Amino acid sequence: MDAVIFPGQGSQKAGMGVLWRDTPSWSVVDEVSEASGRDVAGLLLDADAATLQQTRNAQVAAFALGLVVLDAARRAGWSWDVAAGHSLGEYTALVAAGVLSRADAARLVAARAEAMGAAADAAPGTMAAIVALDASTVAACCEKAGGGVWVANDNAPGQIVVAGTAEGVAAAGAAARAEGGKVLPLAVGGAFHTPLMASAQADLDTALRAAPFGPAAIPVVANVDAVEHLDGWEGLLSAQLCQPVRWRELTLRLAGLGVERVVELGPGAVLSGMIKRTAPELDRVTVAGPSDLGPPAQRP
Fold first, then answer.
1. What are the angstrom distances between the C-alpha of 84 and each of 89, 96, 104?
2. CA distance 217 to 139
3. How deeply is 229 buried, as exposed, middle or buried, from its count of CB atoms within 10 A (0-12, 13-18, 19+)?
4. Active site (catalytic) residues
5. Which side of the chain, N or C, has fewer Cβ within a 10 Å radius?
């Protein structure tokens, strides 16, 4: 049994579209541009790192490249039994599962990016990865900080992300260091998956209500509850905005469903690294460029 997974915001990097520009799947970029009203080719080919760090650009760019790689994988004959995506990547997973069309998902992502960018401007925040501590210890460190910081991503054993105000994240980081943890600041545009995103909720929910969600061809395991779903995505995506990503539990759920191989589509291999730490028995394949695509490898 195979799973396909998609990274989210933070996976983007300058020039990440260059490898795909001369492939048939590059046509997807024009489709996303038209649906989102954004110059997606410019983001994927010409934008610098500072431009791509901005939330309204990062989300559209990362999502679009995920669709390009998904299209290329399908052209190469790849298929899967279950899907998942990390935060923003969940929208790409829903396209992979047939729940959303590329154009409808692109409109949703553009609306989400604008809403979250505005929320980050209104309530500035930041994020940091806490390494070498478990989730309960990191949660306790957030409590010690006295407010303004929350666990945002439970990614893998010993890899937890906190988010909140700059002061809150700094205080939680100090508490984590006192517990023997290492703190790695993240270059992001806001405190995602926390209450600081609440002002984006109304605009996101309006976009979600207008989206034509269809039945899933394969189940998608959700960020908010680490459970597989075939429907109910309007509510799940709404809840995802301010709730933590439960990626470690999601990975264990994939293994529990009988998944043997996980295929990561997109730049880098961050999710595969998280999966290795959580469920090392799962085979991992990454597709970051056209050279990574060929006939699907046989399961071990």
1. 8, 9, 18
2. 37
3. middle
4. 87, 193
5. C
Q: Distances in Å between the alpha carbon of 96 and those of 66, 91, 216? A: 10, 9, 9
Q: Token pair for residue 149?
A: 């910081």
Residue keyed to tokens 């960018």: 117
Can you name the CATH fold of 126-186?
Answer: Alpha-Beta Plaits (3.30.70)
Q: Which residues of 191-220 are buried (b: 16+ CB within 10 A; e: fewer)?
A: bbbbebbebbeebbbebbeebebeebebbb
- The three-state secondary structure class of 184 is strand
| Local confidence pLDDT in tens for the 300 residues of the chain | 999 999 998 888 999 999 999 999 999 999 999 999 999 999 999 999 999 999 999 999 999 999 999 999 999 999 999 999 999 999 999 999 999 999 999 999 999 999 999 999 999 999 999 999 999 999 999 999 999 999 999 999 999 999 999 999 999 999 999 999 999 999 888 999 999 999 999 999 999 999 999 999 999 999 999 999 999 999 999 999 999 999 999 999 999 999 999 999 998 899 999 999 999 999 999 999 999 997 655 443
Q: Where are the domains of the chain?
A: 2-122+195-292, 126-186
